[in-house]
Amino acid sequence: MGDTLVLLNARAGALIDAGADHVRQTLESSLKRRSDTVEVRLVRPGYLKDEIQRAAQSDISTLVVGGGDGSAGCAVHALAGSSKTLGVLPFGTMNLFATDLGMPADIEQAIERLGDARPRRIDLGRVNGRYFHSLSGLGFFSQMARAREEVRGHKLGRLFGVGLAAIRALRRTSPFTLDFRTERRREHVEALAVLVTNNRFGPDWRRPVLDEGVLEIHIVEHAGALSKLKASANLIAGTWRNDDDTDGIRSLDARHVVISRKRSRTFASTDGELRRERIPIRYEIRPGALTVLSL
Hints:
This protein is of the alpha+beta class.
């Protein structure tokens, strides 16, 4: 069955609320159903990336990470193409990846169900050579990631913080001109945002399929202030799939896409992490690149 290492963000609110000792004991009990040995470590956020890298080089067969989409993204990049299996617990804010793997939002239920999860191969995206599990965005999306960091832990709560971040992102977002090309087309576009997703997202930011073998590119074209507001609201809520009037949001699929702008670098928000990327930005799909625990 192999050995399992569990790395948990020691500052995660879900861990603190449930109680660290209780979480550790429950995890050990749940995962012993599928592992020869189980080790659970609580790691401070600043050291989590290094611990994941060390785990990727170790002899363990399964790594479970308890954190947000950013922590999961670090583990995805470290384990992609290897024989190791990745499990994800929803200890973050959005938890897009954990949800797509079938993990319940309730941490107690997620820990219990993790013991019943089964390995499966899924696709990964790559941006400039770095793997990602869910999505990568430019323009409004990079501004949203920046603003979310500024309001993280707001005293009025998560919902108010998201709203405040959206307002700041809208104020800072301005149209930009880009060239993009895929294996089938090439275009020159004035846009407010570009979102590249690993496989297709449906309503409410959920992916029905994780091994379709395609990227989907969503382009929010610039068409005035009202369009900017409506399109941004639809993207945040994940409701653009529910409405025939997409408010200037155009979607297409491809196996790879190259995006160019008149600058050498630009910010991109990839799986919740803000990074400066080299121009041109190269996205590609890597089918079956990772084994994960999924329900």
